[in-house]
Automatic annotation (TrEMBL):
The chain crosses the membrane at residues 12-41, 62-89, 95-115, 136-157, 177-195, 216-240. Signal peptide: none annotated. The keyword S-adenosyl-L-methionine does not apply. InterPro entries: Cyt_c_assmbl_TM_dom, Cytochrome_c-biogenesis_DsbD. Belongs to the DsbD family. The lineage of its organism: Bacteria, Pseudomonadati, Pseudomonadota, Alphaproteobacteria, Rhodobacterales. One of its GO terms (cellular component) is membrane. This is Cytochrome c-type biogenesis protein. It is a multi-pass membrane protein.
Amino acid sequence: MHGFDIIDASLLPALLIALSAGLLSFLSPCVLPIVPPYLAYMGGISMSEIQAGTVQRRRAMLPALFFVLGLSTVFLILGFTASAFGAFFLQYQDIMTKISGAVVTIFGLHFLGVFRIPILDREARLDAGDRGGSGLGAYVLGLAFAFGWTPCIGPQLGAILSLAASEADVARGTTLLAVYAAGLGIPFLLAALFIQRAMGVMNRIKRHMKAIERAMGALLVVVGVALMTGAFTAFSFWLLNTFPGLALLG
């Protein structure tokens, strides 16, 4: 309304998808299992202390916060870059969006088990050095995590980057990646806050990894098809027509 609008009805569907993609990234088979040892390492905590319930929340929370800031830094830079790239190639945006949609759909079919892409079944781990127990070390570990787990969380991240590029607006694209980072980072913070209970919950979730992977695949297929067909624009118009009050957002 005054030249500073970022969130409006047209961005809401993409924001919901970004949040869901971040949460599914946290629950993915190559992220969830490493959460307890990461939290223990970052806080300088032994697994026996966690199991005994003698850990002070501050010891786990502060490093977890710096870890989330580290991975968020990378995602925000990626969001800025993707949306700036989309703005630069604005004249080719339609064809680039369709290509991005096709790639994201292929990723989705991989997770649904229609076929397998070997590189997506691998993970590239970066060593952040012996920095357990420090805020700086946790921040560096967050940076390493964001880069090193790209083969695993890459399809979900790629889908959100495609949405950011299709926005062709730096502020809106960066906002999408900030929401994705929140979807991935907030569960880390909750796991640190309730570290002992979280271990039990995560052990139970591990039994449902196949269903989580399929949900991830279904989300990616929906995003890919929406990018190729322009469904996001159509859905945004439907939202405005159905809920006129949303127009006040933008």
